[in-house]
Design a protein that fits this description.
The chain folds into five domains: 194 residues, Aldolase class I (TIM Barrel, Alpha-Beta Barrel), CATH 3.20.20; 76 residues, Sandwich (Immunoglobulin-like); 106 residues, Sandwich (Jelly Rolls), CATH 2.60.120; 99 residues, no CATH class; 121 residues, Sandwich (Jelly Rolls). The protein contains 14 helices and 55 strands. 49% of the residues are buried. The N terminus is likely disordered.
């Protein structure tokens, strides 16, 4: 029997391992808050205090729904296993029955129904090499516990990992249902590691015996009445992304076996997003990050850092979840008891809000027999639960700020809106309705307070959002408002072979022209300037996401950028930054106290850099840099591997150059116009700005083709030294597109409105597209253009009759069809 009682921080931990078929039973790693003041909106509230139909939708699953139609709700034992330091206690018959009864009494009527037993439940194998429950944990048999859970109207889950243990394959046991096979036939040779911890060996699925073995286990679970399987240490993911360990064959085999037994299949942990399509094909849900638990035995279940680090992950993963697809799993929602959660009341509500708007499975990690009053309020708010069960993952307006707005457009046209204050002080958070795709006004309802707030026009201000706090709203657009949906929106249905971005997108871009003003007659000289297409992000920049243990050191006087650095002493600590551009530099310190770090770009390990310096200290050193990336969205992640410290001083982001020069010198003694050549088509040029204010075209500057001339009259008004004039260029809506190269591929939108408009790109590589309204061909539009231009009006319908409609766009010709934005006018 394998045994290891030491939990590894932030990893699934092999506790009480049984030498079972798949090395099964492994320790898995898997009052009120600050009162929300009324947000600013017009005082005229709706007469009836009701939310939209979406918001008030019933949370409970319907009998006719397919498995996985909604994010599941329930409880998992693992957080308490870690917290108590005695995993066995929390998966015993006595404890599981107690949790089932507590769920039945407190949470079940709100939709919670799964009781998931994590690692360590089994006690060996049967004569066919299949796991059997521990007789110590379940003296009356696990079946009695399963029956009790089912009698409470609930479902039960068990835990597994990939592979097969040496004891099982060496025993060459006959496989149930496949007498021609033995467990000795299924191990892959030469032997290969199957899981993160090296507990089991890979199964050979090129032989039918491999699938037969998994089938025999899944069929046994079906006979027991098991409803859910958590499959841990799935790779690529689980800390391994180089394919040295690859569990995709296991995932496919288990998926086939569990599907025929109608068992939910959940993958864990930190799944590699590069293989998202594979996970979606084979599973009902997948963990997107490391464990939420802090491994703070008898102190706390989690920490704020383990919650806040999920935001950038959700920003990457949200497109991959939804009804009929599967669900992004954020891990246990540990907000039920402030005495053990490790979070403030505001942080607890923020976590509950984030799980809700992320459409993440809402499974409690607390002891359900000991929930406090506030925890029950968080877990049983019907309007918040309905947001989760609607299954529309929210996405951020931007992650470049600590005061974030996340939103999702619902099927009825209402918009779920959550604001999160991830910063360091209380703050007002302004939500422009245009950021939500609303052109018009909207009625606003606060879901946590269950109160209508009136009508917002143009923008809405959530006032005094506390540090690490949140607000959650439904915005219902007024009649005759225009609703604009980005190509990513869950309401758009794609049919055929489609991809996202991949160099087919054009991001919006602003580049500064630095004007260096001086007077040579007074002996002045033009100041030196740097490249304006490089943007420096200090180590405390709001877009940098830190995971693990980090501290800040300021006022060091060592020549650091802005005289401060961020540092960590814990191996495995990491920072991550998402950017739009063509390159990036990691600028840091080199010193004898430092060591190696792994660098990942867009999820791929690209380098291991050494920041060790035997003598002296290197300041503002570029230890990793990359250029010539496709212009678009990228993510840099750096993980500490060795040494006492790892530091970050700043990141230099290289943006696309859209001007032929970075700066000009203006000599007052010899005034002259400045001429700049645009690197993008002038049709995308939006104008020149100073300090956010637009300069006047035709007066302050003129445009002739690609040449922009800044007049000497305007230049003479600038102060001595450097002044930035920003040149702005339009890009695709939210800097992304969906595209297809397949004739006949289509995208459709169902809506209720009087008018619908398609906006997007024209370009040399595009051809024609057919437009259908309510299945009737109404137009064939030509999307070909000599230049690539974004956000063009491509089609607008005539007035439509009252009621529901569907628009469908079908690629007819050309190399590609890009889809960017669809908007409709509400009635």
């Amino acid at each position: 029997m394998f045994h290891n009682d030491r939990p590894t921080p932030r990893l699934r931990w092999p506790a009480a391992l049984a030498a079972a078929t798949l090395a099964l039973g492994m320790g898995a790693a898997s009052a009120q808050a600050s009162e929300a003041p009324a947000a600013s909106a017009s005082p005229s509230a709706p007469s009836a205090a009701t939310a939209s139909a979406t918001t008030l939708a019933a949370a409970a699953a319907r009998p006719d729904e397919p498995l996985g139609a909604r994010p599941y709700m329930g409880w998992s034992s693992y957080s308490m296993q870690v917290y108590a330091g005695d995993g066995k206690k929390w998966i015993s018959a006595e404890q599981i029955i107690a949790q089932s009864d507590a769920m039945h009494d407190k949470l079940q009527k709100f939709g919670y129904e799964y009781i998931n037993i994590d690692a360590g439940w089994n006690g060996g194998v049967d004569a066919n090499g299949r796991p059997v429950p521990s007789e110590t944990l379940y003296p009356d048999g696990l079946q009695a516990v399963i029956d009790h859970v089912h009698d409470n109207g609930q479902k039960v889950g068990l835990y597994f990992i990939p592979g097969i243990s040496a004891e099982v394959y060496e025993a060459e046991l006959p496989i149930a249902g496949a007498p021609e096979c033995t467990t000795g036939d299924v191990v892959k040779r030469p032997l290969q590691q199957a899981d993160y911890w090296g507990i089991g060996h890979r199964i050979d699925f090129s032989t039918p015996c491999g699938q037969a073995y998994i089938d025999s286990i899944a069929d046994m679970l079906g006979e027991w009445g098991v409803d859910f399987v958590k499959f841990d240490s799935v790779t690529p993911g689980s800390g391994i992304g180089d394919l040295s360990i690859d569990a995709r064959d296991d995932v496919a085999a288990w998926s086939t076996a569990l599907e025929r037994n109608d068992i939910w299949f959940e993958l864990s942990w930190a799944l590699d997003i590069r293989y998202a399509d594979f996970w979606k094909e084979h599973a009902n849900g997948w963990r997107v990050d490391w464990d939420v638990e802090c491994y703070c035995e008898n102190e706390a279940l989690t920490t704020w850092d383990n919650i806040s680090r999920l935001f950038p992950k959700a920003a990457d993963w949200w497109r991959h979840a939804g009804p009929g697809t599967g669900w992004n799993d954020f891990d246990s929602l540990n907000v039920g008891n402030g005495a053990m959660d490790g979070l403030t009341k505001d942080e607890r509500r923020t976590a509950a809000t984030f799980w809700a708007v992320g459409a993440a499975p809402m499974y409690v990690g607390n002891d359900m027999t000991n929930l406090d009053e506030y925890g029950l309020e968080l877990l049983t708010n019907k309007e918040v639960i309905a947001v989760n069960q609607a299954g529309r993952p929210a996405h951020p307006v931007s992650t470049a700020t600590p005061r974030q707005t996340w939103f999702a457009v619902n099927a009825d046209g209402s918009v779920t809106v959550a604001v999160f204050n991830l910063g360091r002080t209380d703050a007002d958070i302004t939500v422009p309705l245009a950021d939500l795709g609303i052109d018009g006004s909207a009625k606003v309802r606060d879901l946590w307070r269950k109160k209508n707030l009136g009508t917002a026009n143009g923008e809405f201000v959530a006032e005094d959002v506390p540090l690490h706090g949140t607000r959650l709203f439904t915005f219902t657009p007024a009649k005759k408002s225009t609703i604009t949906l980005n190509d990513d929106d869950a309401r758009l249905v794609y049919d055929g072979d489609w991809a996202r971005n991949g160099g087919k997108e054009v991001p919006a871009r602003t580049q500064a022209l630095t004007v260096s003003s001086f007077d040579s007659s007074d002996g002045g000289e033009a100041p030196e300037t740097g490249a304006s297409n490089i943007v420096s992000i200090n180590n405390d920049g709001p877009g940098i996401v830190y995971s693990g243990t980090w501290s800040r050191s300021g006022g060091r006087g060592m020549g650091d950028y802005q005289d401060d650095v961020q540092y960590s002493e814990a191996d495995g600590s990491a920072f991550e930054y998402s950017f739009v551009g063509t390159g990036i530099d990691w600028v840091t310190e080199t010193h004898s106290s430092q060591g190696e770090a792994e660098v990942f770009l867009d999820g791929v390990l690209v380098d291991t850099v050494d920041t060790f310096q035997a003598e002296g200290r290197g300041v503002q050193q570029v230890v990793y840099g990359v250029r010539d990336l496709p212009n678009g969205s990228h993510t840099l992640r750096v993980v500490k591997k060795s040494g006492q410290f790892m530091l970050i001083d700043k990141l230099d982001v290289v943006q696309e150059g859209v001007l032929d020069i970075d700066h000009v010198a203006f000599d007052r003694a010899q005034p002259a116009d400045a001429v700049v050549t645009l690197g993008r088509d002038p049709g995308e040029f939006l104008g020149v700005f100073r300090g956010g204010k637009a300069l006047t075209a035709g007066t302050d500057y003129t445009v002739d083709g690609r040449e922009v001339t800044i007049g000497s009259t305007l230049l003479a008004t600038l102060p001595d030294g450097d002044t930035a004039l920003d040149f702005r260029f339009r890009g695709d809506l939210r800097d992304d597109v969906h595209w297809t190269g397949t004739d006949g591929a289509s995208v459709s939108l169902a809506f209720t409105g009087s008018k619908v408009t398609l906006t997007g790109a024209i370009g040399p590589d595009q051809g024609t597209a057919e437009i259908y309204i309510d299945d009737k061909l109404v137009d064939t539009i030509d999307l070909h253009g000599d230049a690539r231009l974004s956000r063009q009006t491509l089609f607008t319908s005539a007035d439509l009759r009252k009621g529901e409609h569907t628009i469908r766009i079908v690629k007819a010709s050309g190399d590609v069809l890009r889809i960017d934005g669809l908007s409709y006018v509400t009635r």
